Amino acid sequence: MAAALLVAAATAAAVCARTLWLGAHRRLDDRRGGGSGAAMLAALPEFLTASVLAVVVGVHLGWLPALGWYGPRWMVLPALALGLPAGALLGRMLADLLPGAFAEPWALAAAARGIPGRATARHAVRRCVPGLLPNLGLFVVGLTGGAVTVEQVFDIPGLGRTTLQAAVAQDLPVLQAGTLALVLLAAVAGALARLAAHRLIGPALRDGALHSLHRPTPPAPSRAPLLHGGLLLAVVALGLMRDPLALDTGSRLRPPSWAHPLGTDALGRDLLARIGHGAFTTLALAVAISAAALLTGVLLGLLPRFSGPLVDTVNAVPAVLAGLLVAGVAGGGAATPALAVAAVAWVPLTAHTTALLAQERATTHITATKGLGAGDAYLLRRELLPAVLPPVARHALLRLPGVALALTSLGFLGLGAQPPDPEWGLLLAENQPYAERAPWAVLAPATALALLGALAVTAAGGVRVPRLPRRPLAGAPHRPKPAAAPTAGETG
Q1: Cβ atoms of residues 404 and 386 within 8 Å
Q2: CB within 8 Å of 197: residues ≥ 6 apart
Q3: What DSSP string runs through 103-156?
Q4: Which CATH number fits domain 133-463: 3.40.50.1980, 1.20.1070.10, 1.10.1520.10, 1.10.3720.10?
Q5: Belongs to which family (predicted)?
Q6: Which end of the chain, C or N, has fewer beta carbons within 10 A?
Q7: Is it the case that residue 348 has pLDDT exceeding 60?
Q8: Is 437 in a helix, a strand, or coil?
């Protein structure tokens, strides 16, 4: 776990390094792009990352051991599989807050006085980290939940895998002990995060001396969402025109060709057809759950005294464990992953809303507005919600591929839809054993998930639709361009 956190921290630093460099040199206006690479990295399932690392690094290259747990060398690949997606998401969230920190008066004054940009960047990170610390506790438990599938791939005994096996075997004493350990882990992580946030900006919160972390200028709309969305829509549309259940045992594990653009699986079924038909199940559920989580997270985030203990409790239940509990009560089926993920998806958004709301209420302009006689309803409607909703909505978009990954992870464990349903989690689970022999069978659904992640992140900054040049209407009189004004030399 500690090694995975170190990998996540290093990945987050790499993701936001360019924003830090531009902010330190007062060149944030040159910032372009929406972080598609980080989005795709965050959209990779842990079990898929683990499988690729085990096959490529462990088996083909032989650089590191692929199975077991016998020393520090066996820790590298699992830590990379767990830390890379989490670090990419944390880095994107931090990069979203940094432009606002660099636009605050202290940063402008530091640049005017000639203070080195390195010091300004360090203090900008310190200014933004408290808003992310509540989510750090969530990431700790999220890594524990993700470790369930990673431990299975690498054959590692751990808390998540032990709890999973106990739930499958209905071993209630072990299941209760594992759940209690996760609850204690979440409580300790949440307490440490709150303590660190208080140490960093406690005096400013008490004195109401903070400034809002607003972007100096909104991110420029990009055409990248059109590219990612168009590719994903094309794959789905072409797949819907094919039969996802047609068997052809003579075409097992065929590579991509004109007949099968994405190849075939172990039963000779067309992967393009299965991805297209499975998109409705995965994407529709992910969008619906993300929208419900955003609404619930904002509403509960406005009530921190009520939601705080609830967040600490529900935070201790990863989506995988929630799926096991739901399956134990209601049985398996297509609705089990949706209920399990919806039960825990609102937690990080609630924590994020609470943290941003506390900082916004401590700002100087809120204090001044209160002094002018503004009521709570006015402050909430005109000041607090407009400041909190945009970053939380972008956070929800960032987590959209994570919701889809949670659904696919539960399908990968066999808790969701059952064969021959073309759900994306089942596609990954069915083709994962053939990753070494037929990598396209795994890369096809994984690429669809990566496109979803890139679409979610780039769309958060706005979409720039290309405009066609306007043509004059038929029969409209032609208006000549006005003559250029004469220069000073010509008038003389």
Answers
A1: no
A2: 130, 133, 134, 355
A3: TSHHHHHHHHTT--HHHHHHHHHHHHHHHHHHHHHHHHHHHHHHHHHHHHHHT-
A4: 1.10.3720.10
A5: Belongs to the binding-protein-dependent transport system permease family.
A6: C
A7: yes
A8: coil
Q: What is the pLDDT of residues 164-202, one digit of tens each?
A: 677 667 677 887 787 777 667 766 776 777 777 677 666
The residue ranges of every structural domain in the chain are 133-463
Q: Which two tokens stand for residue 84?
A: 């890379």
Q: How far does the chain reach from its first CA to its final CA, in angstroms?
A: 80
35 exposure class (CB count in 10 Å sphere: 0-12, 13-18, 19+): buried
Structural tokens at position 336:
């089990």
Overall average pLDDT of the 344-353 stretch: 85
- Segment 76-120, tens digit of pLDDT: 998 898 888 888 878 888 887 888 788 878 888 888 888 888 888
- What are 334's two structure tokens? 């297509």
Using CA atoms, how far apart are residues 248 and 244, in angstroms rounded to an integer?
11
Confidence of residue 475 (pLDDT cuts 50, 70, 90): low
Total residues belonging to the chain: 492
Give the residues across from 210 on adjacent strands. Answer: 363
Given the structure tokens 């399932």, which residue do they identify?
Answer: 45
Average pLDDT of the residues in 28-32: 60
Q: Which amino acid is at 100?
A: G
Helices (H), 16-104: 17-24, 36-42, 46-53, 76-102
